[in-house]
Amino acid sequence: MLKGIPSFLKRPGDSIRQLLKSERPQQSIKPELHIVSRDEHPMSRTGISESALKVLYRLKKANYDAFLVGGCVRDALLDLHPKDFDVATNATPEQVNSLFHNARIIGRRFRIVHVRYGRETIEVTTFRAPPANNTAKSHASQTDQGLLVRDNVYGTIEEDAIRRDFTINALYYNIRDFSIYDYAGGIDDMDHRLIRMIGDPETRYREDPVRMLRAIRFAAKLDFDIESATEAPIRASANLLRQIPAARLFEEVLKLFLSGQGEETFNLLREYHLFGQLFPYSEDALRESPEREAFILQALYNTDKRIAENKPVTPAFLFAALLWPVVQKAFAELIRSGIPPVPAMQQAGQQATAAQVDFTSIPKRFSQPMREIWEFQLRLERRQGKRAYLTAEHPRFRAAYDFLVLRSETGENVGELAQWWTNFQESDNHSRRNLVMNSEQHETPVPRKRRRRNYNSSRKAKE
Ligand code: ATP
Ligand code: MG
What we know:
Blueprint: H1 7-10, H2 16-20, E1 34-36, H3 50-61, E2 66-69, H4 71-77, E3 86-89, H5 93-99, E4 103-106, E5 112-117, E6 120-126, E7 141-142, E8 148-150, H6 157-162, E9 171-174, E10 180-182, H7 186-191, E11 194-195, H8 201-207, H9 210-222, E12 225-226, H10 228-231, H11 234-237, H12 246-257, H13 262-271, H14 275-278, H15 280-288, H16 293-308, H17 315-336, H18 341-356, H19 364-379, H20 387-393, H21 397-409, H22 417-426, H23 429-442, H24 448-462
Parallel strand pairs: 3-6, 11-12
Antiparallel strand pairs: 1-10, 2-3, 2-9, 4-5, 5-6, 7-8, 9-10
The protein binds adenosine-5'-triphosphate and magnesium ion (MG).
């Protein structure tokens, strides 16, 4: 978890500004280099993965420049565990590739090298130039709106630094002398706990609107503020996210909500009008019925808690929760139009999914279980005879039960159903029989076989 400002930045009289003996540079065309020597920062080789060190040393031995860069330096300075290690170098992908037997050049948009050590992959990137520095041999291009579509132009480390998004993501750990190279004022911003865009924020959001989501993600993850000029254009630029392919946004949504700070991220996304760009129908449903927010907040709170406890979390459950207000709304409308509950729930799920995939894709392996979680909510109501036993053994039961508990906890009128299933799971066989018998007294028997056959055959007819 977050440990706060790194101790080396906290020592009285030893602020990093004094350490560097100058104010942070303004964002300018010419970046100014500050070098923080090895004894002036707390990053040590013990916090760096063995594999990353191997890559760095091999590059150094071959006389190339080699740096750790990006999230791993930022997180290591904050005493967080970096999740992966990225290396930046002046060697070309081909040169890197020829140094390692376990390397592979990948990517069309960006050519980068993956060096594999068992399950760990170290990403090695050649210094790249930002689009503004493109020369005649440029491979980068922008659309009329300024969206950057390719940028595979090699550059110097200075150029590489200023094409990165935030100052705290542009710190380079030099394997030659273990110092940190700071071209954009990132150390100073770490000191002030600020997310600051490198360059003109509006232009940089236009180049890549996903940077708006990244600003929110890092603010939530690190508990940093977004610097005022960096946050100013976000609301007005939020709709630029429509230019981003749904598949990329799906990946970003997972990072936003499954990194352990989902609840805080959700609040920030709503505050900056970004949630509605990712989940427009959920946003609409929440505006119409603000009380539905409690369910999503609780789902995200529980997810964060599971992540903190190292328990598994699934995109299917996450999307089931984020789209639940949409499903509920569609379900209510279908019921009003006279459709019976089971097919109404199926159709509502279908509609909510079909509408969402224009914005974020949802791969089938997640959309299928997501829809089952919704459909199971009705199945959980039926507990007669052997049904409860069969339901409890179904692979989707656990997620559906958790979902039901959430609904119950956040004010949905599900009666004693959640408690009933809790009791059922905690009971021995004898008590289970009693529970089922009791529920039979309350349930109105329905001629299920006939109804189901009718429904299935009408569905088949439609297909
Ligand atoms: P984390 O891995 O914890 O999500 P990260 O900062 O490492 O955070 P990555 O997506 O792994 O994020 O990217 C690595 C680095 O590449 C970033 O730190 C940043 O310097 C640069 N980068 C990534 N995405 C962008 C972007 N959209 N625009 C500019 N620079 C970017
Ligand atoms: Mg990273």
